[in-house]
Specification:
The structure holds two protein chains of two kinds. By secondary structure, chain A is an alpha+beta fold. Chain A contains five helices and five strands, in the order H-E-H-H-E-E-E-H-E-H. Chain A has a five-stranded mixed β-sheet. In chain A, strand 3 and strand 4 form a beta hairpin. Chain A is globular, with a radius of gyration of 16 Å. Chain B has a single domain, classed as Heat Shock Protein 90 (2-Layer Sandwich), CATH 3.30.565. Helices cover 36% and strands 25% of the residues of chain B. Classes of the chains: A alpha+beta, B alpha+beta.
């Protein structure tokens, strides 16, 4: 691979933007939050992040932001991923490996189905009450 | 236990972010004999007392999780350095910032693998913070650097999934072209 410069990066960004605006249909917006605490990292959250990026790129899914959060108090079910998209229930997935991440992109982010066997429900209540960090 | 050195660095950069640092510098120096990295921030720092406690795996400041009695980030780092004939040190001043330094023998059989730096750096750079992060990667004969500020200026929202893919490709391209001795 050629060494990219910031100018290359800017050009790539602009060409992607152009391609997006030429495509039909309204892309649904949403947010994917990956638990990246010590527990999440140790359980493989980094490869989950890679899988999300890769699958979203393949399916040309845009308008989704991927954020990170610390531990949600669910260390035993790491990696955990919270997904909030338009027209779909707000879900916390637990024990998400690379394949599950790809399924979440294919099913949940496209707005067709939830990945039922990995739904954890809600983050630990004491953390929600304190606002979390 | 963390599987790679990248995981350890990720944990430390998060510590700096959580210490409300506006400037974080991660410098990684890889030579044939040694691997070394330093994370320096201008965050809130720690008192001498807290520094001693921070390396105890059964200590946590309790701010994030009220009932938790473990904090494994720094203990993992110390353990890894010790296992690979190296050393990890923490220097910190309350109100001024913290600097964590790690080195270990590159060829040591108990040194964890380096890990995939492009995804790690992408995650570090897209952490929820307004502060800047500079990453400097050096070998004996080559180096490159990347900063959060320049990426925000070039791409805009760093959490946008397409921008994340671009950042990863950008860093991958620099990793691939980084000359390593021997």
């Amino acid at each position: 691979m050629k060494k990219l410069t910031l100018d290359d990066l800017r050009a790539l960004r602009n060409s992607k933007k152009k391609a997006m605006s030429q495509r039909d249909g309204e892309a649904k917006s949403g947010e994917v939050v990956i638990g990246m605490g010590t527990c999440g990292i140790a359980a493989g959250a980094k490869s989950v992040f890679d899988a999300f990026l890769d699958e979203m790129e393949k399916l040309e899914i845009t308008n989704i932001v991927i954020k990170q959060t610390g531990c949600m108090g669910l260390c035993f079910s790491e990696p955990t991923v919270e997904v909030a998209t338009e027209n779909m229930p707000h879900v916390v997935y637990g024990n998400v490996d690379e394949e599950t991440a790809r399924r979440i992109v294919r099913d949940h982010l496209t707005g067709t189905a939830l990945v039922s066997d990995h739904i954890f429900d809600k983050p630990s209540m004491d953390i929600i009450e304190k606002g979390g960090k | 236990m963390h599987a790679t050195l990248c995981d350890l660095m990720m944990d430390l950069v998060q510590n700096s972010t959580e210490a409300d640092a506006s400037e974080i510098e991660l410098t990684i120096i890889e030579t044939k004999e040694q691997i070394e990295f330093t994370i320096k921030d201008n965050g809130k720092g720690m008192s001498k007392e807290t520094q001693t406690k921070a390396i105890d795996p059964f200590y946590s400041d309790g701010e994030k999780h009220a009932h938790r009695r473990v904090g494994l980030g720094l203990p993992f780092l110390l353990q890894t350095a010790e296992a690979a004939d190296g050393l990890a040190t923490i220097e910190s001043e309350e109100g001024h910032g913290t600097q964590v330094h790690f080195y270990a023998k590159a060829q040591h059989m108990d040194l964890p693998p380096f890990g995939h730096f492009a995804s790690t750096a992408t995650l570090m750079l897209s952490q929820p913070t307004q502060g800047n992060l500079s990453i400097v990667r050096k070998t004996e004969t080559d180096d490159y650097s990347v900063t959060r500020e320049e990426l925000v200026e070039t791409l805009g929202d760093l959490n946008d999934s397409q921008n994340l893919t671009l950042i990863k490709a950008y860093i991958e391209s620099m990793e691939e072209n980084l000359e390593k001795a021997g």
